[in-house]
Amino acid sequence: MENRALALVASFIAMVFVVLAYFVKKKERYLLFQLLCIVFLVISYFFTAQFFAMVGLAVGLCRTLVFFLYEKKGEKAPIEWAFAFSAISLASYCIVNLWILKDAKPLDILCLAGLISYAFIFRIRNLKTVRFLMFIPTTFSILFNLLTHAALFATLTYVFELSANVVSIFKYHVLPSISKKEQEKSAK
Questions:
Q1: Whose CA, among 43, 68, 87, 99, lies 20 to 30 Å from 176?
Q2: How far, in Å, CA of 60 to CA of 175, rounded?
């Protein structure tokens, strides 16, 4: 059931959540907003018949939920979870694209690489490191969406995510460093 209008609405809602994610100071809240974003991206991909991306993000939803629960307890998720979710992403790709749809495309590697990257990045507890590493899967997602002609707003969601990430890096990591150096310089 393809419906571009519903896909756009869902993608817009996802975009709002992903932008909010980059402007929180706690990893727990970051993961919560990412969870909400993923829910709406799954809905968007459903309405554009991008089934591998939809299934991949459903796996990502479970992954983010697991990492969120660990973060809520103040613990780092074991590396086994990242490998397990990567294996599940690969298996879901094979099942959906090779077996069910019989429609595997070389571009699917971009989506798969992004999903696997998220599995390892989201388990990192340091939000600064997460922000810097998120360039990798976000870039893969933008390229995948552009090259597969996904709904415009799905693509824009990732573009806004990348933009929000850059702004948050400047806000939380670059500008405070510059300000601190200026204060140290003026104190001398």
A1: 68
A2: 32
CB-count exposure of residue 78 (10 Å: 0-12, 13-18, 19+): exposed
- Alpha-carbon distance of 138 to 10, in angstroms, equals 18
Q: Which of 136, 158, 162 has the alpha carbon at shortest distance from 148?
A: 158
Tallying the residues shown for the chain, one arrives at 188
Q: How far apart are CA 90 and CA 56, in angstroms?
A: 9
Cα–Cα distance for residue pair 138/144, rounded to 1 Å: 10
Query: What is the tens place of the pLDDT at every residue in 11-60?
Result: 889 989 999 999 999 999 999 999 999 999 899 888 888 777 788 788 88
On whether the CB atoms of residues 63 and 119 are closer than 8 A, the answer is yes
What pTM was computed for the model? 0.81
